[in-house]
Structures are given as structure tokens and as C-alpha cells.
Amino acid sequence: MVVVIQCAATKRKNAGHLRCRDGRNVMFVANPDAAGASDRLVYARPDDFSDTVGESWRSVLREYNKHPRKNRHGLLPAWQLYDNPIYGRLKEHFGLDGLYILSAGWGLVSASCLIPNYDITFSGAEKVMSLKRRHQRDCYRDFCTLPSNVDGPIVFLGGKDYRRLFLKLTVNVQNERIVFYAGKKPSGLGCTVRTYRESYRNRNYRNWHYRCAEALMEGKIRLDCLTERGLSQSCDG
Asked: How far apart, in Å, are the Cα atoms of 72 and each of 19, 29, 55, 142?
């Protein structure tokens, strides 16, 4: 089984940055034009051209990950980048090969992929500034490092704002895709859907995917209850 969990807004304080030729750190955002002037940071989209090798920053990061031991900018692997401890727990439980992160900035990346600091989200909350909000229509050349055929099902834990990207990036995988949700049951996804019952009972949808991840690791959710594609059965709880 492979678990895919959406990214988080809060990054660790020691998160590293890619750098421009003049040594300034790059902060990746959805809308650099909305950022104020800074002598210390350069704001850019992941697919903007860098000033280093004449390629996009995404290409720079792809090349950077080919030599992870060098890691001259101190980038953190995806499972360590986010401040919430659930990512570390998932890595310990499922291993590096069994955990992937769905990043609003970079796409679907393995837990071991080195990722620079960024501030991009699909969240439509009013408090989210235009600087960081990625819209579904925006063009990104997202990574997808998930193999087309893995061992067991692919389980997605994330909100509806991230669901479309997950489905898009995994459309060619051969394994069963299991999408957990809270609230209203989604339809027409072309995969198996499962409700997370605790969130439904308590109407507490905020960060429900973290609690769902904990229940999955604790064995409170049984994936073997699923018998039919597109059918959501309540086998947890």
C-alpha cells in the first residue's frame, strides 16, 4: 500500500531554499507579483525560469535531486519539510517507499524528495492571500514520481481542494485508488471512495485527514472491507 497525503501550510524553520546566482534565497509562491520588494528573497513560481542554468526552477530541483548527498542548500526531504509531526509518523509506519506527498507547489513527490521552502496552497479560505493561492486553472508542470504500478492500493488523504490534482496525476496508475473524504460524498471520481466516519459524526472537518492518517496507522480503518469500485462502506470506527 502507498499513502498519499496533502501538504501543509506550516514548514519547519530550518527549511532550505534554492538560491539565485547572487546568493539570494528563492521563495516559491503562486503569484510573485503580489509580493512586496525584498533584498533578501526572490519570489518566483516553480515553473518560472531560473537565473542559474537557463531552465525552470522545477528543472533545477529535478537535477538537484539527482545528487541528494551534496544537498548544498540544506533542503529537507518532503516528509521532514512540514511542521506537523504526522508526516514523520507516516514515514516511520509506511517507510520512505510507502509515503508520498501531494504538494500544491511541486506535485506528487516521494517522501524522500528534497523540496525547497515554498508557500503555495489550493485552499480557498478567505485568509489565504493571493500571493500563495493556486487556482485549479493555473498551469503547473507538476512532478509525479509515483511509479505506474506499485504494491497494493494507493490511498489519498486530503481535502477536496487537492483531490483533483491527485486524480489527475494518478490517472495512469494501474493500482486501485482509494480516496477518503469528509462531509458530502463525492461522485464521478473513477475510484473507490471512503468516508472518514469520525469527521462525519463530529462535523469537524478541519485537518480531518491527519486524524484519518492516525486511524489508518492504528488499524482502526480496514481497507480490506472495500469490495466494489466507487462504493463507500463504513468499516472503520
From this structure: 10, 22, 19, 24
